[in-house]
Amino acid sequence: MSRVFGGSRTLAAAAARAGTKASAAAPAAVSSPSSTAAKPKHSGILKPIPVSLAMRKFLGVPEISRSQAVKKIWEYIKGHQLQNPANKKEICCDEKLKTLFEDRDKVGMLEIAKLISPHFPKSK
Prior knowledge:
Structural class: mainly alpha
Number of strands: 4
Strand order of the largest sheet: 1-2
Largest sheet: 2 strands, antiparallel
Strand content: 5-15%
Distance between the termini: 63 Å
CATH architecture of the largest domain: Orthogonal Bundle
Protein name: DM2 domain-containing protein
Region (Disordered): 23-43
Domain DM2: 44-122
InterPro entries: SWIB_domain, SWIB_MDM2_dom_sf, SWIB_MDM2_domain
Helix content: 40-55%
Shape: elongated
Order of helices and strands: HHEHEHEHEH
Oligomer: single chain
């Protein structure tokens, strides 16, 4: 039994020594001034996409990524206390949210991503 664990300790110690050498060299590579000044290129779900007029009015921007749009909508919901206190999964829509959510009075928190999908037109 000790041979099995003894071997693991030896491997773990070797990995720890190798990790300290690699981490000592890493800060030199990160501190280059050009890497902090470069603007990141976003792709996939982080890529800003043009949005509908209703979403543009709600968020105040002509294009945004889906994840950022959901984040901003949640900031609005929390800031205006629109979650149902008895059932936190339910959102009580005010007039501004109704413009995004098909004039519905209440929506479920899991429906938000589906309901904002039409506000991100597909590009050809």
